[in-house]
């Protein structure tokens, strides 16, 4: 039944017809409840007569609606209604309500001709990211094609009919050769020309089938012609199974050879030879787009493609084509040393594909990478050759500290810090020896003469010790006048006598890389950096922030002074470094460079009930930090990345209306908002574009100027319910991170908890008589309660680790995150002057990152029945190590 303007479907008024296809007719409509225009797809009448199809449609629509990804069409509602027609009588109509898009399908855009290579890569990259989000939830599109992809006016891309194509009828009415049936193996599903070979054969589709279709779409975007086309559907299907399309690098397309190889890898006949995940495909496309302006990279790739490619060389050529590799795929070096710098996703082999990877250390020959692989159950140092799918976990390396891995000059052994010791392990035999004491440890380096440099503790200079053991002696002296609190992250220079390190002070963000010598010559500064630096050949490599980029600085081989201008190795804004310690999270040797991604994680602010079911969202996906709800539950304060200026700003959100309002706009970072009990003011930390963050207070309305109330690196955590005190944390030198209290009326502050351990995340109880906080005084972080203000009574709340504690508004429960990111609840009850604590019970698993103790990642509603969680679109375990082969070849 065709609907006319003015027809009412539930709360929706039909305005006009947009289009029609195999999945039904699409109309523009008005949502009378929310006052917005939407798109409504009315499904074919055959659906209403088939209960099984309706049930499948309902399940799929709900699954897609839960994805909430910017590159997937948002599903707002599904329903059915009776519609009366003068000619056809009353009919039951089944419909789906989605966002209304302002743009054209890729099919309509292709009618104007092919897209430029860079634009084609950008469009395909956005599609790949949407596919990745769906694949994470077990949803496969099965019918990806230009008709199902819309290019919006602002350049963004939306995938349509996600997960619903399997219920479509047989003909689209658009002239396409289309075959759509059920999803069981033995039947054919998809659109001829974009179906993967396994779909043509009637086999079950998996995520790699979608990647084949995306490869075919990308081929068509860039060339203007279809990858697989024949006069009949049968001939097109035969081409998919048996033939390859013409090379894009050859006339008439004449696209860059690297671009052609990326497409070729996507449309391999065998699923095992394709990209193994949509994220890998997206990374390859991003790298392709980033390098599109590099004449050096394009020229090298173009020269390389002229050489015939044999099947057994596939992975090596994939590297040269800027390909991403997934878990279990061999990572081989190109055979030509003259290749330009080429990024590659480096993932471990099973069983570490779901692990968080950190602390890469490239072996001296550049052929192996050591890294720490952490899962919820275990962690160890893992060594992987770049020419093998096998990865070797090293026994006895559990508990290795981040940033502590370093190779011996002969590549036979690894040094690392764990369990309060400096240790070395022989990789081949796994023979382990303790070299020296190192209570904490912040980096090490192994010199050609057997000397190991290391930073043994949080407040120590650089020490030297023989790799065979013996007395460890300080080789640097902390510059008290300069405010040095520690010296960290030593790196030997090529002469084996000089080294660099970074003096650490809590009062600054930008550091000075210093040059020192084993003979005790006084250190001298070399250059500025946000992270520590590594030494690779004749370069210093480090991270500059705002925006993040990986920098190479050449140095004079005689004086080790910087020489020439610094050059960007890769302008990847997601290059990560550990700002709280200065750890650079990268390594390089013999032409191989490995760095860590994952600094920014796009998240969705999602409401969950106590059973872990999503019950709502706030705003659109973005890079958020520290959600905090006002005491009356009506407002949210949240830190959001400022992509234009490179810092972060604070925003407030009216939770009833979902309206975002900017609170701060100063250069740099404004962080960790804390509401006053009346909701009229917000305390926060800000560096105001300077080096040293302070605690500030501002009107929650955004009006008026902010006022600095505490100097020094101070971060507010909570405001007492009587409005008299603000809890904040501050670095205390020898006492590390401490809990302080600010008296609002007297405008004075004093330490509350200042032990030799770190204390984080304090929160007032509703009655103001207790605080909860986190301490690392034992093994790992644990959540505690402490009486306020005397601190005389201390009660441990967590048994097996805990972070980010928060009170329920009535004071009967405390919530915290367990080490595996499970949200826990523990009952508490006043008992005279003490506190009775129950057994902590799990509520639900989140994918938050409790390791980031400064960054609170959830907020509890006052009644303790809902929780607003920062839910990453990509889970923390998806952090990648990225290898760049022949990384220096593109530097000038």
Give an account of the 3D structure.
With 892 residues, the protein is mainly beta. It folds into 4 domains: 8-99, 2-Layer Sandwich (Phosphorylase Kinase, domain 1), CATH 3.30.200; 104-292, Transferase(Phosphotransferase) domain 1 (Transferase(Phosphotransferase), domain 1, Orthogonal Bundle); 351-537 and 577-599, TolB, C-terminal domain (Neuraminidase); 603-872, TolB, C-terminal domain (Neuraminidase, 6 Propeller). Helices cover 13% and strands 38% of the residues. Strands 1-2-3-4-6-5 form a 6-stranded antiparallel beta sheet. Strands 53, 54, 55, 56 and 57 form a 5-stranded antiparallel beta sheet that branches. A hairpin with a 4-residue loop joins β3 (24-31) and β4 (36-42). α8 runs antiparallel to α9. Residues 164-189 and 291-353 have low confidence and may be disordered.
Question: Topology of this protein?
Answer:
Elements lengths: L7 E2 L2 E10 L2 E8 L4 E7 L2 H4 L2 H15 L9 E11 L3 E11 L3 E3 H5 L6 H20 L12 E4 L4 E3 L18 E2 L10 E2 L5 H4 L6 H17 L9 H10 L14 H10 L11 H13 L4 H11 L8 H7 L21 E5 L9 E7 L5 E7 L4 E7 L5 E3 L12 E2 L5 E6 L2 E6 L5 E6 L6 E3 L4 E4 L8 E4 L6 E2 L11 E7 L5 E7 L6 E7 L6 E6 L4 E3 L2 E6 L4 E6 L12 E4 L15 E4 L2 E5 L6 E7 L4 E9 L1 E6 L5 E7 L6 E7 L4 E4 L7 E6 L5 E6 L7 E6 L7 E4 L3 E6 L5 E7 L5 E7 L4 E6 L5 E6 L5 E9 L1 E8 L6 E3 L6 E5 L5 E5 L4 E10 L2 E4 L3 E5 L12 E3 L5 E7 L8 E5 L7
Antiparallel strand pairs: 1-2, 2-3, 3-4, 4-6, 5-6, 7-8, 8-9, 10-11, 12-60, 13-14, 14-15, 15-16, 17-18, 18-19, 19-20, 21-22, 22-23, 23-24, 25-26, 26-27, 27-28, 29-30, 30-31, 31-32, 33-34, 34-60, 35-36, 35-59, 37-38, 38-39, 39-40, 41-42, 42-43, 43-44, 45-46, 46-47, 47-48, 49-50, 50-51, 51-52, ...
Helix pairs in contact: 4-6, 4-9, 6-8, 8-9
């Amino acid at each position: 039944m065709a609907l006319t303007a003015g027809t009412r479907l539930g709360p929706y008024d039909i305005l006009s017809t947009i289009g029609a296809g195999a999945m039904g007719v699409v109309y523009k409509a008005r949502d009378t409840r929310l006052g917005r225009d939407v798109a409504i797809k009315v499904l074919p009448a055959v659906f209403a007569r088939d209960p099984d199809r309706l049930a499948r449609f309902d399940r799929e629509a709900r699954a897609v609606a839960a994805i909430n990804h910017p590159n997937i069409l948002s599903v707002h509602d599904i329903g059915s209604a009776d519609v009366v027609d003068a000619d056809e009588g009353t009919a039951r109509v089944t419909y789906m309500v989605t966002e209304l898009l302002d743009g054209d399908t890729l099919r309509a855009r292709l009618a104007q001709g092919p897209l430029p290579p860079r634009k084609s890569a950008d469009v395909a990259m956005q599609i790949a990211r949407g596919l990745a989000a769906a694949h994470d939830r077990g949803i496969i599109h099965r019918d990806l094609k230009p008709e199902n992809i819309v290019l919006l006016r602002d350049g963004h891309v939306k995938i349509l009919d996600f997960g619903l194509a399997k219920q479509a009828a047989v003909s689209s009415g658009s002239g396409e050769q289309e075959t759509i049936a059920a999803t069981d193996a033995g039947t054919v599903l998809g659109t001829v020309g974009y179906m993967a070979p396994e779909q043509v054969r009637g086999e079950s589709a998996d995520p790699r089938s979608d990647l084949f279709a995306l490869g075919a779409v990308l081929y068509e975007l860039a060339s203007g012609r279809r990858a697989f086309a024949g006069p009949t559907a049968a001939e097109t299907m035969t081409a998919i199974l048996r033939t390859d399309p013409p090379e894009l690098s050859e006339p008439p397309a004449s696209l860059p050879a690297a671009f052609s190889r990326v497409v070729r890898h996507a449309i391999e006949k065998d699923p095992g030879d394709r990209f193994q995940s949509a994220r890998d495909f997206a990374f390859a496309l991003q790298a392709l787009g980033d390098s599109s302006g590099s004449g050096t990279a394009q020229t090298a790739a173009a020269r390389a493609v002229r050489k015939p490619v044999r099947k057994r060389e596939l992975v090596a050529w994939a590297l040269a084509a800027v390909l991403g590799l997934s878990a279990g795929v061999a990572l081989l070096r190109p055979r030509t040393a003259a290749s330009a710098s080429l990024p590659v996703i480096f993932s471990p082999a099973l069983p570490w594909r779901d692990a968080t990877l950190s602390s890469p250390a490239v072996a001296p020959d550049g052929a192996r990478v050591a890294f720490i692989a952490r899962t919820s159950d275990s962690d160890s140092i893992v060594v992987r050759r770049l020419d093998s799918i096998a990865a070797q976990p090293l026994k006895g390396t559990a508990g290795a500290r981040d940033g502590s891995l370093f190779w011996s000059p002969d590549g036979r052994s690894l040094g690392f810090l764990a369990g309060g010791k400096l240790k070395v392990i022989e990789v081949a035999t796994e023979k382990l020896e303790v070299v020296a004491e190192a209570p904490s440890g912040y980096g090490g380096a192994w010199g050609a003469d057997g000397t190991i440099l290391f930073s043994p503790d949080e407040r120590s200079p650089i020490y030297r010790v023989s790799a065979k053991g013996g007395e460890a002696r300080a080789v640097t002296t902390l510059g008290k006048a300069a405010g040095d609190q520690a010296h960290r992250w030593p790196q030997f220079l090529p002469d084996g006598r000089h080294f660099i390190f970074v003096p650490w002070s809590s009062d600054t963000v930008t550091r000075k890389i210093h040059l020192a010598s084993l003979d005790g010559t006084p250190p001298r500064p070399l250059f500025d950096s946000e992270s520590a630096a590594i030494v690779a050949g004749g370069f210093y490599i480090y991270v500059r922030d705002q925006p993040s980029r990986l920098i190479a600085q050449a140095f004079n081989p005689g004086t080790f002074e910087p020489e020439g201008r610094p050059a960007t190795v890769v302008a990847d804004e997601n290059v990560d470094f550990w700002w709280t310690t200065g750890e650079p999270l990268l390594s390089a040797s013999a032409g191989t460079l490995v760095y860590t991604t994952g600094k920014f994680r796009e998240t969705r602010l999602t409401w969950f009930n106590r059973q872990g079911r999503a019950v709502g969202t706030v705003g659109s996906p973005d890079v958020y930090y520290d959600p905090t709800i006002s005491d009356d539950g009506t407002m949210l304060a949240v830190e959001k990345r400022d992509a234009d200026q490179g810092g972060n700003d604070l925003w407030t959100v009216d939770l009833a209306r979902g309206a975002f309002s900017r609170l701060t706009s100063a250069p740099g970072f404004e962080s960790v908002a804390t509401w006053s009990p009346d909701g009229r003011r917000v305390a926060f930390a800000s560096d105001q574009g300077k080096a040293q963050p302070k605690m500030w207070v501002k009107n929650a309305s955004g009006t008026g100027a902010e006022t600095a109330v505490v100097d020094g690196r101070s971060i507010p955590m909570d405001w007492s319910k009587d409005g008299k005190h603000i809890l904040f944390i501050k670095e205390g030198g020898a006492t590390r991170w401490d809990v302080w209290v600010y008296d609002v009326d007297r405008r004075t502050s004093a330490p509350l908890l200042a032990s030799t351990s770190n204390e984080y995340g304090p929160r007032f109880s509703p009655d103001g008589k207790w605080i909860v906080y986190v301490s690392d005084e034992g093994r790992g972080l644990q959540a505690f309660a402490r009486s306020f203000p005397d601190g005389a009574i201390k009660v441990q709340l967590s048994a097996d680790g805990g972070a980010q504690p928060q009170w329920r508004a009535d004071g009967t429960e405390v919530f915290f995150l367990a080490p595996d990111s499970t949200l826990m609840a523990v009952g508490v009850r006043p008992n005279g002057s003490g506190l009775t604590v129950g057994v902590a019970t799990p509520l639900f698993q989140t994918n938050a990152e409790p390791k980031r103790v400064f960054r609170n990642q959830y907020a509890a509603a006052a009644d303790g029945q809902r929780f607003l969680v920062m839910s990453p679109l990509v889970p923390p375990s998806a952090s990648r190590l990225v290898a760049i082969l022949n990384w220096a070849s593109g530097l000038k």
